[in-house]
Amino acid sequence: MIQTFLVMAGGALGAAARYHLGRLAMHWFGPGFPWGTLAVNLLGGFAMGLMAGILARTTMGEPWRLLLAVGVLGGFTTFSAFSLESWLMIERGEIWMVMAYVLASVAGAIAALGLGLAVVRAVA
């Protein structure tokens, strides 16, 4: 039961952080491009890289993985929103924009995860 609570608590924190970052991005950049979702997915990839690197090198254990990686980052990242936004761009005929968005999201998140791992490895 405690495992479920950890995931739920982390998910609530992650979802709230995603909401506020999305609002901030909308305020800064306007509604023309899904900057909030892109930022969340890139930051989420980086944070997951940090988390994976830290958890691999410590004895923090399963409770921390459940709270932070599954809960917080699961609530924070937005693949379903990414998919919807990509599809809506396709429907609007914004082919170049959707290709740039998909490439930046996928390649950027993978690169951000690698950067997070590299930071942990360099510090350790």
From TrEMBL:
* Localisation per UniProt entry: Cell membrane
Membrane topology category: Multi-pass membrane protein
The main location is: membrane
One term under GO cellular component? plasma membrane
Amino acids binding Na(+): G74, T77
List, alphabetically, the InterPro entries matched: FluC (IPR003691)
- In its keyword annotation, does this UniProt entry include Lipid biosynthesis? no
Which keywords annotate this record?
Cell inner membrane, Cell membrane, Ion channel, Ion transport, Membrane, Metal-binding, Sodium, Transmembrane, Transmembrane helix, Transport
Write one Gene Ontology MF term: metal ion binding
How activity is controlled: the entry says: Na(+) is not transported, but it plays an essential structural role and its presence is essential for fluoride channel function.
Write the signal peptide boundaries.
none
Query: Which regions span the lipid bilayer?
Result: 33-54, 66-89, 95-120
Annotated catalysed reactions: fluoride(in) = fluoride(out)
Gene Ontology biological-process annotations: cellular detoxification of fluoride
Q: Name one matching Pfam family.
A: CRCB
Q: What family does the database annotate?
A: Belongs to the fluoride channel Fluc/FEX (TC 1.A.43) family.
The cross-references to PANTHER family, in alphabetical order and at most eight, read: FLUORIDE EXPORT PROTEIN 1-RELATED
- Note the NCBIfam families from the entry: crcB, PRK14195.1
Question: Any idea what job this protein has?
Answer: Fluoride-specific ion channel. Important for reducing fluoride concentration in the cell, thus reducing its toxicity.
What is the protein name stated in its UniProt record? Fluoride-specific ion channel FluC
Organism in which the protein naturally occurs: Sphingobium fontiphilum
Instruction: State the encoding gene.
Output: fluC
